[in-house]
């Protein structure tokens, strides 16, 4: 079935959205499957005619007619943000996004209580912020782990009495811990969740298994592997498994383990939004990002030279890829250099998943590390391919599908030109 | 990582979902349906356009469009445009009591849903039929679709008071980008429509039969696979003459249909129609003008009364 998994091998923002859009524009894609993260994802897709949408919960293939989105059970679903996103899609000519959406009923809900708690905690950290987006995704995951049988889930939106009870318990626990939260009363939340349940197809696990057999699916990762909850640089990580692991689990449940192509996305300039290690950071780099500015939760958008050391680490903890997509080649001028090793440190060695003390030690080391910068490569795809030991199958020089080229475009075209 | 740019306001969200309870036009298809919706099944069906106290002078207008893969995104654009058609006709007064029917054409040799036909409606109930249409997306690659089956259905399975009482033909618009098969196949008719046709019928004979009761137009839109292909246009020109029309802007489809009806009803001449469009702020004027320039001077054919259905085509004077 030619399923593809798309994962970011950096700190996010490398261009997963535009790669997923390209895949959906050049082949018959049945469904884009989101398998981690939640509404804090921000995957920008720009069409040739100038229309733009920042995909948060909808799959980045939604501009292409008929392509569905499935939110797997690993996604933290925010029905409130989803409604606003669907409205924006309507305004850019996609009125049927909600009709093409399925959501796994087991997925956790992100609620106003999670969001308020998330913000309260992040504010309390003061200068030591983790770079949270302030949408309560991590908070929802934490609550789900602590109270698996009482955490509000998508399917509860169909059962107002259950949902009321669970929201009240959630609110009470969080306020007991953090004090009063800036969030609406439970009764006021219920109509929105009920309206969501009436409008959106809530399904069980079997839906995805049959979709995977019906047509080609694209697994769209969120955030980046260097932010992974177990392998990222603790504590500047996200509460989400950002590697291929969840996607592989979903495939295995459908009896299709190991059948999907693994695609890693990188950009020529290694970036990070929010605090935490960015060894190659260089404030002198003359870049800005159209879709990532300074925001109160993550601060400014940070640019660095291509950090092959960090990306090689991401590649290793993700278990390797079949190909790389290299974006932002249009930014690769003489000032943008490549870092193949740090001073006194050639390689970051992956440890066992979940050893957070080890990860915190690694983080401390990285915060002190100094990059060894080499001259800008003349041939970026060749240099990146050589540094990471994986073929570059797609390159991109701009935001639209038409600005991509490489074997990946050709191999998957199946006779359809990008629309 | 992003920053959560979509509003998470709980009060606002409930409103947004309430406003958007309507399903998409192709919700039936998009939900995975792969067989004809019972409301659109042509089997043993008769589609009627009848006068009523409210609509004493019904004018039947049928719009059937190709939903196979060669049309690309065209069916979805049509879906988004066609609901405006009735409003446009009524607003401009181009037709008395218009009753509109939508249908879809596929390929009987390889598609699961080769023919779908809705009902004639005088209000927005026809939009429901649009929503029930299954989009094929396949197609045979032989540059032919089963338009002849649609012609057969329109000729033998429709009944209109416009014709029965007033001897006036209805309007049939077929929007597509390929050739018809050379003949109506009896086996396909039996399987899909349920008639025992005994033997196959040449497509030319079918066209003669359907044009007797329906003013029939073929619209070849821009953006479809074979648009601009002379072979397709020549084929339909051979069957329908100047009623085979190229349409270089799909966004103008409703205006083109509305003006064609207005011209046919002699409610307007082309210049007046184009002025109407301009005044209404339409951006489609140039497209419509180009598409209809050849039709503008044509006079609508009217049957001579009294008409007896047994006469078949003989009662019709084509001007």
UniProtKB/TrEMBL annotation, chain A:
<dbReference type="InterPro" id="IPR042111">
    <property type="entry name" value="Adenylosuccinate_synth_dom3"/>
</dbReference>
<dbReference type="InterPro" id="IPR042109">
    <property type="entry name" value="Adenylosuccinate_synth_dom1"/>
</dbReference>
<protein>
    <recommendedName>
        <fullName>Adenylosuccinate synthetase</fullName>
        <ecNumber>6.3.4.4</ecNumber>
    </recommendedName>
</protein>
<keyword id="KW-0460">Magnesium</keyword>
<dbReference type="InterPro" id="IPR027417">
    <property type="entry name" value="P-loop_NTPase"/>
</dbReference>
<keyword id="KW-0658">Purine biosynthesis</keyword>
<feature type="active site" description="Proton acceptor">
    <location>
        <position position="13"/>
    </location>
</feature>
<dbReference type="InterPro" id="IPR042110">
    <property type="entry name" value="Adenylosuccinate_synth_dom2"/>
</dbReference>
<dbReference type="Pfam" id="PF00709">
    <property type="entry name" value="Adenylsucc_synt"/>
</dbReference>
<feature type="binding site" description="in other chain">
    <location>
        <position position="238"/>
    </location>
    <ligand>
        <name>IMP</name>
    </ligand>
</feature>
<dbReference type="GO" id="GO:0004019">
    <property type="term" value="F:adenylosuccinate synthase activity"/>
</dbReference>
<comment type="subunit">
    <text>Homodimer.</text>
</comment>
<keyword id="KW-0479">Metal-binding</keyword>
<comment type="function">
    <text>Plays an important role in the de novo pathway of purine nucleotide biosynthesis. Catalyzes the first committed step in the biosynthesis of AMP from IMP.</text>
</comment>
<feature type="binding site" description="in other chain">
    <location>
        <position position="223"/>
    </location>
    <ligand>
        <name>IMP</name>
    </ligand>
</feature>
<feature type="binding site">
    <location>
        <position position="13"/>
    </location>
    <ligand>
        <name>Mg(2+)</name>
    </ligand>
</feature>
<comment type="pathway">
    <text>Purine metabolism; AMP biosynthesis via de novo pathway; AMP from IMP: step 1/2.</text>
</comment>
<keyword id="KW-0547">Nucleotide-binding</keyword>
<feature type="active site" description="Proton donor">
    <location>
        <position position="43"/>
    </location>
</feature>
<comment type="similarity">
    <text>Belongs to the adenylosuccinate synthetase family.</text>
</comment>
<keyword id="KW-0436">Ligase</keyword>
<feature type="binding site">
    <location>
        <begin position="328"/>
        <end position="330"/>
    </location>
    <ligand>
        <name>GTP</name>
    </ligand>
</feature>
UniProtKB/TrEMBL annotation, chain B:
<feature type="compositionally biased region" description="Basic and acidic residues">
    <location>
        <begin position="38"/>
        <end position="54"/>
    </location>
</feature>
<feature type="region of interest" description="Disordered">
    <location>
        <begin position="37"/>
        <end position="57"/>
    </location>
</feature>
<protein>
    <recommendedName>
        <fullName>VWA domain-containing protein</fullName>
    </recommendedName>
</protein>
């Amino acid at each position: 079935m030619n399923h593809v998994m798309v994962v970011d091998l950096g700190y996010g923002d490398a261009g997963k959205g535009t790669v997923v859009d390209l895949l959906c524009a050049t082949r018959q894609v049945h469904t884009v499957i989101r398998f981690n993260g939640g509404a804090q994802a921000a995957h920008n897709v720009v069409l040739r005619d100038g229309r733009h949408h920042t995909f948060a919960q909808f799959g980045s293939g939604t501009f292409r007619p008929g392509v569905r989105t499935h939110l797997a059970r690993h996604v933290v679903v925010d029905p409130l943000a989803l409604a606003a996103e669907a409205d924006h899609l309507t305004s850019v000519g996609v009125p049927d996004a909600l009709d093409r959406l399925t959501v796994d009923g087991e997925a956790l809900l992100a609620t106003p209580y999670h969001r308020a708690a998330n913000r309260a905690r992040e504010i309390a950290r003061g200068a030591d912020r983790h770079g949270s987006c302030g949408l309560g995704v991590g908070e929802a995951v934490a609550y789900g782990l602590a109270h698996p049988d009482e955490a509000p889930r998508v399917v509860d939106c169909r059962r107002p009495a259950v949902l009321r009870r669970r929201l009240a318990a959630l609110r009470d626990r969080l306020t007991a811990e953090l004090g009063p939260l800036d969030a609406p009363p439970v009764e006021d939340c219920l109509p929105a969740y009920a309206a969501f349940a009436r409008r959106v197809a809530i399904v069980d696990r079997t839906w995805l298994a049959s979709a995977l057999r019906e047509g080609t699916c694209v697994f769209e990762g969120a955030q980046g592997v260097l932010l992974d909850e177990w392998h990222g640089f603790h504590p500047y990580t996200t509460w989400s498994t950002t590697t291929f692991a969840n996607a592989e689990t979903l495939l295995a449940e459908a009896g299709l383990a190991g059948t999907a192509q693994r695609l890693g996305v990188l950009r020529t300039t290694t970036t990070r939004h929010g605090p935490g290690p960015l060894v190659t950071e260089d404030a002198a780099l003359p870049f800005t990002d159209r879709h990532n500015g300074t925001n109160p939760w993550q601060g400014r958008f940070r640019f660095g030279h291509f950090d092959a050391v960090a990306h090689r680490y991401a590649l290793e903890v993700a278990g390797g890829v079949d190909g790389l997509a290299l974006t932002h080649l249009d930014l690769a001028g003489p000032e943008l250099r490549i870092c193949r090793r740090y001073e006194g440190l050639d390689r970051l060695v992956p440890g066992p998943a979940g050893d957070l003390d080890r990860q915190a030690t690694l983080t401390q080391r990285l915060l002190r590390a100094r990059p060894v910068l080499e001259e800008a490569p003349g041939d970026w795809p060749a240099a990146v391919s050589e540094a990471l030991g994986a073929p570059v199958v797609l390159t991109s020089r701009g935001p639209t599908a038409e600005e991509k080229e490489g074997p990946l475009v050709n191999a998957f075209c199946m006779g359809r030109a990008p629309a | 990582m992003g920053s959560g740019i979509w509003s998470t306001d709980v009060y606002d969200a409930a409103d947004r979902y309430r406003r958007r309870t309507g399903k998409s036009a192709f919700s039936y298809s998009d939900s995975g349906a792969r067989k004809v919706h019972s409301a659109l099944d042509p089997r043993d069906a008769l589609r009627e356009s009848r006068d009523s106290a409210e609509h004493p002078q019904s004018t039947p207008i049928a719009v059937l469009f190709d939903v196979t893969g060669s049309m690309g995104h065209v069916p979805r654009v049509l879906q988004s445009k066609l609901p405006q058609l009735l409003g446009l006709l009524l607003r401009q007064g181009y037709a008395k009591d218009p009753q509109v029917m939508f249908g879809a054409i596929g390929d009987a040799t390889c598609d699961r849903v080769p023919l779908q036909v809705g009902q004639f409606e005088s209000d927005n109930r026809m939009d429901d039929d649009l929503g029930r249409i299954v989009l094929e997306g396949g197609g045979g690659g032989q540059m032919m679709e089963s338009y002849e089956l649609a012609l057969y259905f329109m000729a033998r399975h429709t009944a209109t008071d416009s014709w029965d009482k007033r001897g006036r033909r209805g309007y049939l618009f077929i929007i597509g980008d390929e050739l018809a098969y050379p003949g109506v196949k009896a086996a396909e008719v039996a399987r899909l429509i349920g008639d025992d046709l005994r033997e196959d019928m040449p497509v030319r004979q079918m066209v003669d039969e359907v044009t007797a009761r329906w003013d029939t137009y073929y619209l070849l839109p821009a953006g479809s696979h074979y648009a601009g292909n002379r072979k397709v246009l020549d084929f339909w020109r051979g069957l329908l003459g100047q009623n085979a029309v190229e349409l270089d802007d799909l966004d103008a489809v409703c205006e083109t249909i509305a003006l064609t009806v207005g011209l046919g009803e002699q409610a307007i001449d082309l210049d007046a129609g184009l002025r109407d469009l301009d005044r209404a702020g339409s951006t489609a004027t140039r497209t419509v003008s180009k598409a209809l320039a050849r039709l503008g001077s044509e006079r609508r054919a009217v049957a001579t009364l009294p008409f007896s259905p047994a006469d078949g085509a003989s009662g019709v004077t084509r001007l």
